[in-house]
Design brief:
Layout: H1 5-12, H2 23-32, H3 39-48, E1 56-58, E2 64-66, H4 73-84, E3 91-92, E4 94-96, E5 99-101, E6 105-106, H5 107-114, E7 125-129, H6 135-142, E8 147-151, H7 155-167, E9 174-177, E10 190-196, H8 205-215, E11 216-228, E12 236-237, E13 252-253, H9 255-264, E14 268-277, H10 294-297, E15 298-299, E16 302-306, E17 314-321
Parallel strand pairs: 2-4, 3-6, 7-8, 7-10, 8-9, 10-11
Antiparallel strand pairs: 1-2, 4-5, 11-17, 12-13, 14-17, 15-16
Family: Belongs to the class I-like SAM-binding methyltransferase superfamily. CmoB family.
Subunit structure: Homotetramer.
Keywords: Methyltransferase, Transferase, tRNA processing
């Protein structure tokens, strides 16, 4: 069973201590709740993974752990087998004792794009909304974060995160909680809040922006990464049943329209930091994620369009401040 007592202790003497008024009951309810059919298998793999103490860890340039001398081949093979029971691995990559988890997304490329535009993360308390397997949490720790908290309700992602944590030696600077943003009270306690790849999945995008704002301290920084379309201050795409084969895509604004949304929600110093076309090198099928990926989601005759005929994925990073 995955326990959260270490996290409770971690925040008990911090400006997140008031979260303890609601969080333990929520996570107890989660523990008693329904489970994905493979959850026991995933959890069994996590529990059987060794907690290793690496001789070398690099979270600044990637998520890398090594040990000298290397692990015995039989133990390595066993670790890789357990990690593969938790496929698909979507966000990464990870390099753990010579096991290279080649994930669907090159999340390191996104990190390299956004890092130059952020306020320094050293000493900060950070929230990552919709964090997936927690890859970026480790990169935040590598950039000096005091505490990086990820929330994502997907049970697979929690198991993947806890597996990586064990292989990194049980590092307590990053934590993943199986919650959605709508379950968080107005904490107003995080120095930086990230929302990456979430906004277009929200039926009410402005409510999402207010929820993010409510988690920030005064003068805190929001980092928002999302799908956009080309266009002016008023351009918004509302896809039909699917966009790039995704069912739950509701609103895809132009970057300038999204800037207006942020300002309407009370953010200041809003800037469009980066705009980038998603390539089939950045998102692709691998041996760790064997189902369809971006190549199959694009028009085979014109990669400028999705299979539904919409503009192909274009992503932007916006940075804003809560006054």
């Amino acid at each position: 069973m995955i326990e959260f007592g270490d996290f409770y202790q971690r925040i008990a003497k911090s400006n997140l201590s008031h979260w303890l008024d609601t969080l333990p009951a929520q996570l107890s309810a989660w523990q008693r709740g329904s489970r994905h059919g493979k959850f026991k298998q995933w959890l069994n793999s996590v529990e059987h993974l060794p907690t290793l103490t690496p001789t070398y860890v690099d979270l600044l340039h990637g998520v890398l752990a090594e040990m000298e001398p290397g692990l015995p081949p039989g133990q390595l093979a066993g670790i890789e087998k357990m990690l593969r029971t938790m496929m698909p691995w979507r966000k990464g990559p990870f390099s753990l004792y010579g096991i290279d988890i080649d994930t669907e997304w090159h999340s390191d490329w996104k990190w390299d794009r956004l890092l130059p535009h952020l306020s320094p993360l050293a000493g900060r308390t950070i929230l990552d909304v919709g964090c997936g397997s927690g890859y970026h949490l480790w990169r935040m720790v590598g950039a000096g974060a005091q505490l990086a908290v990820g929330i994502d309700p997907m049970q697979l992602f929690l198991c993947q995160f806890e597996a990586v944590r064990k292989l990194l030696g049980g590092d307590q600077r990053a934590h993943l909680l199986p919650l959605g943003i709508e379950q968080l009270p107005e904490l107003a306690a995080f120095d930086t809040v990230f929302s990456m790849g979430v906004l277009y999945h929200r039926r009410s995008p402005l409510d999402h922006l207010y929820q993010l704002k409510n988690q920030l301290v005064s003068e805190g920084e929001l980092v928002l990464e999302t799908l956009i379309v080309a266009g002016d201050d008023n351009q918004v795409l509302v896809p039909g049943d699917r966009y790039a084969q995704m069912r739950n895509v509701y609103f895809i604004p132009a970057a300038r329209a999204l800037k207006n949304w942020l300002e309407k929600c009370g953010f200041v110093d809003v800037r469009i930091a980066d705009i980038c076309v998603t390539s089939t090198e950045e998102q692709r099928r691998t041996s760790w994620m064997t189902s369809e990926s971006l190549t199959e989601f694009l028009d085979p005759d014109d990669h400028r369009k999705t299979v539904e005929g919409y503009p192909a994925p274009l992503r932007a990073i916006l940075v804003a401040r809560k006054p």
